[in-house]
What we know:
The complex is a heterodimer. Chain A is mostly helical.
Amino acid sequence: MNHPLLGFLTAxxxxxxxxxxxxxxxxxxxxxxxxxxxxxxxPNRVGPFGLLQPLADLIKLVFKEEVVFPQSNRWLYxxxxxxxxxxxxxxxxxxxxxPHFAVTDINVALLYVLAAASLGTYGxxxxxxxxxxxxxxxxxLRTANQMISYEIAMAxxxxxxxxxxxxxxxxxxxxxxxxxxxxxxxFLGFVVFLVSMFAETNRAPxxxxxxxxxxxxxxxxxxxxxxxxxxxVGEYIHMVVAAALMTALYLGGxxxxxxxxFHWFAxxxxxxxxxxxxxxxxxxxxxxxxxxxxxxxVLIPLALVNLGITGLVLLR
Amino acid sequence: MGAYLSLAVFxxxxxxIALVTMGLAIILRKRGRPEGEKYxxxxxxxxxxxxxxxxFHAGYYLVALIFILFDVExxxxxxWALTLKHLGILAFVEMxxxxxxxxxxWLYAYKKGAIEWV
Lengths: 316, 118
């Protein structure tokens, strides 16, 4: 039973099903929490406490009519949701969920994660452009701008972590946090990463790509049935991945006060995800010029300052 | 099994998941051709006005150009960060000079109003 291929397939299977399930139930969790924040019940009709709601949504979406507009660029239109879903899934390969559990451990893991995040921008941009709709086009352009701007801040914040850990492998980075989580020595970087994480996942208060009040639904206005579901699930997988990255990079991964293990990782991820939902239902949306100004004039200089301080302290 | 081989298989599985889900919807979807208004672009219920190939703000290009500048910088910073402990203070000074030169470009863009929207 110890064949390496078998081990890999088991790990990959667990990660895929675990994360897809987590994403499906994250949608429910978000709707439930949104309900409680607004003093209503949220979905509670399908199954006990609405627990079967994700299944009902999936069945509904699969059986929906497919509309591919004759005026849209057919292949790019079909390609875009696929890119989103695949690029959201890719970073999962290198995330160490438990001390001896990760699909694979490559020594350029962090660069790989950043590359997957950058490629995700293409899905949004292509989707917006291929839909042949004004709102989609503007939504796609905004997203591309927002994601590339905050990606720089994110990468610069990550360099601080790399400086301290001396490795790009997420496994080594978590192992280096056994005694002190990077949340404390890298606090500035943590703040920059937290803010850019919201922007990278297109979540409120940076959900300009799909600002309902001005752009209908932004880049996925013209998408229906399963293609819409891909965009939607892609966003929630992005959230899970972002929470996992934050846990591994700043919150000490699988380490905790007692026995290290997956339970700590899961707990921290859940708390980060709760924070993301909490923020969404608490703060209003930024304006686009505010978003750009904040990213370029505050976050990037802040990340560079953090880098300088970290470097100086390490060389002292 | 090599780490990169597993990674390649993982990527293939991810692509397969996307293809299967979208393929499933094509098999199971509601039959019948959409017609008439369903084939129109959605513009809040109005009949679409003009072409979707609208002109958009040139600022998007400017930000993309500054992005390339800083993305290359970030990429250069990663190998530097990995080896800084061995290279010592000289490498730190060199990187500071590099970043300051880039920041001059950033300052120029700032003063020219490339980051300023409106």
